């Protein structure tokens, strides 16, 4: 074996071998002139298309394409071929004489004269029947994946909407304003929640909580806490006792997630509202008085779902005309931006500046400040609820 | 961001001369004009642009709604004409852009004085009494064909060319983006293009218009070119001995010659 001259199969001269390879290669060959008129085609292609090589030589390449394929040819294939001198792996369907289609991948090169004018276009055609059906399956799978992602997001949104009442109910004699902003782009179910429900005539329960983590598992705990509270509150009304029972419920539940919450029971009096407040591992509410500086209530209590035998204490205050109570989650104070954490001091400052504003304004202003602080992107869920007694301004 | 940078506008030729704006069609980008436009640099201010999604255009300006019909594309051309403060301009549109430049002419009749339509078609799909050359099904087939050919398109290959003025020499990085378009963008553009109907617009386009027709064009057949020239109040038809839909590539000399003759005749009229 010298390696210098190509070898060829026994019984074939080199010329025969070249001719045989052209005619019976495992791909189709076509040569056209500059205008696409077929000058020659090999036997393989003729066989695939159910035509003779002579028939093919009286046709143009474009005639072999489907009408849609012709548009693709004129708008992409031909310009690319002119510009680059070659095109590769173009997917086309070639028309067979029996009106069937041959899915094919096509490579083409441009053969130029010395002066740059086109001498011939050489085209190799590969049968892509299997590949094309596989590609169709891929396309379908992609479409299915997109549809299922869309469904999952819709489900997450729907879940979230059931977990967070977007608009608190109307409470006669009390102005209630709330805002909820999920972290990031809001596509994932977050852990913050709030609830406002009636216990009887002029008797209300307000809940604001934060389940650690996010996603479906956090949503399960959120739902558990919310509906446990609603059920228990039918008979148990003191926040401290409710928190103890929720703690028990969470300890018995298989989830190892914990939760913080603040509960406010509100009973209407002639000149305002009596509020009993219990806190479990949650930032204590802020109290805005018409005639005093804003301060955070002095209230502590252990997390829910961590320790056995915990006890909570309630604190009772009176909300008179013009007073506002602000409940919030740590998405506010732990918001971080280029200036560090938002923090308690900044929170007090921002809220205090709006002491004579309505609850709605307090809530909106606070959200605006926190979002600005984070350059518009909330890194954690944010929930704020303000309860204000009308008058007094 | 201005329309000029959004559409990778390049300007060459004589700054004080009357402007010519060349707009490519569906499929490729402004390099479609590389064998034609340079011939006008000695006599004109030559402006090239990429339609949204093509070549070096800035896809961050893409809006699904805006580009679901051809109005959005035509409005982009109008914006470029305004931003460059073009006056007395000749707009040259290839393929679908023949209709787009006509829409711009109607929007800015003071700025656009004449049109050249290369291989135009106001309606690709057949209807009773009109032969566009295609059936509705054929357009679906084209969309399929786009989908299979874009399987190999990856987001990493998004158009990356920026303001290379080394024209007409095409660098490798420039040719990479030629005829490449985000699959969704291409699909929407194809749908808007091949399902459009601009037959009613033609009689309102009063500017002198040259219609360049190839003798053998499968996308815009001769009968369609004749129809366009007839419907235009000031349309004149020139047949090119060329096969295919892109005489700007396959017969650049004849294309250049026909446009030169047309713009010279305009000069004679106006001076």
Short description:
Chain A has helices at residues 14-24, 43-49, 53-56, 67-84, 129-163, 216-232, 239-252, 330-333, 343-353, 359-373; strands spanning 28-32, 38-41, 86-95, 101-112, 118-127, 175-181, 192-200, 203-211, 259-269, 272-280, 286-288, 295-296, 314-320, 324-328, 336-337, 340-341, 382-388. Chain A has 393 residues and is an alpha+beta fold. In chain A, helix 5 packs parallel to helix 6 and helix 6 crosses helix 7.
Layout of secondary structure:
The complex is a heterodimer of chains A (393) and B (271).
Chain A: H1 14-24, E1 28-32, E2 38-41, H2 43-49, H3 53-56, H4 67-84, E3 86-95, E4 101-112, E5 118-127, H5 129-163, E6 175-181, E7 192-200, E8 203-211, H6 216-232, H7 239-252, E9 259-269, E10 272-280, E11 286-288, E12 295-296, E13 314-320, E14 324-328, H8 330-333, E15 336-337, E16 340-341, H9 343-353, H10 359-373, E17 382-388
Antiparallel strand pairs in A: 1-2, 1-5, 3-4, 4-5, 6-17, 7-8, 8-9, 9-10, 10-13, 11-12, 11-14, 14-17, 15-16
Chain B: H1 3-6, E1 10-13, E2 19-23, E3 45-49, H2 70-83, E4 89-94, H3 96-107, E5 112-118, H4 136-149, H5 172-177, H6 183-194, E6 209-216, H7 222-231, E7 235-243, H8 247-250, H9 252-270
